[in-house]
Amino acid sequence: MEKVLDILVSGVHDAKNQLFFAESVIASAEAEHSIALGEARYAIEAAANRLSVALSAYRLLRHGAALAITPTIVGDLCTEVALAQRSHLAGNGIALDIDCRVVDEWALDRDLVADMLNNAIQNAGRFARGGVRLSAAQAGEWLVLSVEDDGPGFSALPPRRGTGLLVAGRLAGLHARKTRHGSLHLSNGGALGGACFTLRLP
Amino acid sequence: MISNYNKKRFLVIDDQPLARDALRTVAQTIGAFAVEFASNYQDAIYRIRNNVPDIILCDYILGDGRSGQQLLEELRRFNLLPDECIFMMVTGEQSYEQVVSAVELVPDDYIIKPFSPDKLVLRLDRIVAKKNFFASYYKEKRRQEYAAAIAILEAHHASEAGRSYRFEILRQQAEVHLASGNADSAEATYRTILEKYEFPWARAGVARSLRKQNRLTEARQEIEQVVARTPHYFDAADLKADICMAQGEHGEAQKVLDEAAKLTPRNYRRKRLLAEAATLSGDIDTACAAMSEVIANDTMPGAISPEDRLAFARSHVNAGDKISAEKVLIAIRDAEIQAMNLTEQGSFAALLAIASPEKGKIRFAGLRPALMVAELNPTARLDVVRAALSVNDNELADLHTEQLMAGSEAKKAFSSLRSQYALFGREMEFREIQRQVALKRIHHDDADPGELI
């Protein structure tokens, strides 16, 4: 099984190098000719993101993934997610609002959590009417990260979980401190009245 | 954008031409004026040595069995990377994240491909902000003004601006405590970090601090946890081996290092440790092979120290190959010998006296007055004991043996000493020294409580 994983890892690695090259060429063309090709770059990053998620899903389900926990400034994490998503959402007439109220560093798997939030915002963007909000707050000993939209909300609760949500839930649960484990909650209502994706991390 | 990247000098390190081009393009898009390349490990070291860039973008996989992490460690080891220089690791998939979350020696940040120029700017801006925040601390640390460095970190820890850097502040504090010989404060600081989160590097820090306090059993317990949980954290394996050697468990030390060295074949610092452990455990072939690989392949200028040549000669002596040992020793230039400290000179004279009595005996005898009063490290003491026994200078041999047995490295040296004394038919004398040291220790322990009252 280790062998299959190695093959997948090296394949994803090569594909990402190619995607990175494509993105750099586009970025350089944008700068040189003053044109906006943000959507092309967004598509490339989304493709790379799918590869990452697929690989982590495989790792998680077959091997039991280990997280890579580093001290992370929560505000920086939100800024980065906003950078990746804001202009794409704006192109569809949706405003992305960031509300981060956490000053301290938090021990979490930065890239994994960023991936989860990026996916959640992409999903929210599909159903939102005009607004998506990413918020971060500390509730007691928990970090609460939420993505809300002003769309119709989940048609059924709990919603049918696809691979993405299943993996997200498992990965949230891997964040652990002493006896407390992270979790993923899906609900309707929230501040914007639509669907609400909430990660609680210890 | 906080910084003006068009005045900065970038160095892009990647063995893949395509990825190199992409990194260059991204650097140019954010305004980089000067972008240099290195296509491999050696080339990168050469360029950084000649002229330290402002910003290094380095791929994690460098080909030829080398990694960006190894490059980073080597640059720090030779002090080629000032705190002001930005080192950013670039990685294609998740394996590097596993490394960076475990180890003590980390780059300023890492970034996963593909990424946009905007994202790179965001990350670089943050690093610049962080380096500005720590600037006054770096200055004191570099001047080895440890008290001042700690004072700055404490003020930072209490400040509002420091809230975003709490872990880094504590980590730096612990490192300064260790560097300034304050191992119990270092231990306390690492434990404060562990209350927040079980970081492998912080647990290893506790073990390192305990090792410095010579609390070996506890140190061993802590490091075993780290090694079991994060097997890819090779520095933890090195530390475990070091603790094992101090406990006299040379075979276990060698086993740990052997496994780690197999997975990191081009880490020559680890090969040196392996040679040391193998020497102590009596595995002469392994020690010899490891040292000869170090001498042949650690090509960094200045990387091969007199200590390395002495270790190589020692491994030949152990193998009974006096001719090879002599060759290694006489190849050391006079200027190098003169620049040696007393410990190295002691080893040199002792090893030469063993390898080639006609060449070495006189030098060894000449050094005798100094050796009678010198504080040497355990390795040099062992060399001296051995040479002294071989020239029938029992007084000198017994003196260093007694000091070794009375010191904190007694367990490390015990089996080597015993076999040397046996070789010269002096088992009884060795046992007598042992007895005397034990008596003095009991005496000393008895006296202690009285002093406390």
Strand order of the largest sheet of chain A: 2-4-5-9-8
Q: Tell me the series of helices and strands of chain A, N- to C-terminal.
A: HHEHEEHEEHEEEE
Oligomer: heterodimer
The tally of helices of chain B reads: 24
Mean pLDDT of chain A: 89
What is the percentage of strand-forming residues of chain A?
15-25%
- Spans of at least 5 consecutive residues with low confidence of chain A: none
Strand order of the largest sheet of chain B: 2-1-3-6-7
Please name the two chains that share the biggest interface, counting residues whose Cβ lies under 8 Å from a Cβ on the partner chain. Answer: A-B, 46 and 39 residues
**Separate helix tally of chain A:** 5
Biggest beta sheet attributes of chain A: 5 strands, mixed
Q: What's the total count of β strands of chain B?
A: 7
Which structural class matches the secondary elements of chain B? alpha/beta
Largest sheet of chain B: 5 strands, parallel
List the main descriptive attributes of the protein structure presented here:
heterodimer, A: 202 residues, alpha+beta, Heat Shock Protein 90, five-stranded mixed sheet, two-stranded antiparallel sheet, 5 helices, globular, B: 453 residues, alpha/beta, Rossmann fold
Description:
With 202 residues, chain A is α+β, with helices and mostly antiparallel strands. Chain A is built from five helices and nine strands. In chain A, the strands form three sheets. Chain A has a five-stranded mixed sheet with strand order 2-4-5-9-8. Chain A has a two-stranded antiparallel sheet with strand order 1-3. The longest helix of chain A is centred in the N-terminal third of the chain and has 32 residues, at 2-33. Chain A starts with a helix and ends with a strand. Mean pLDDT of chain B is 91; it is low at 447-453. The longest helix of chain B has 26 residues, at 427-452. In chain B, the strands form two sheets. Chain B has a five-stranded parallel sheet, with helices on both faces. Chain B has a two-stranded antiparallel ribbon with strand order 4-5. Chain B is an alpha/beta fold and 453 residues long. Among the domains of chain B are: 5-133, Response regulator (Rossmann fold, 3-Layer(aba) Sandwich); 315-453. The interface between A and B is large, with 46 and 39 residues.
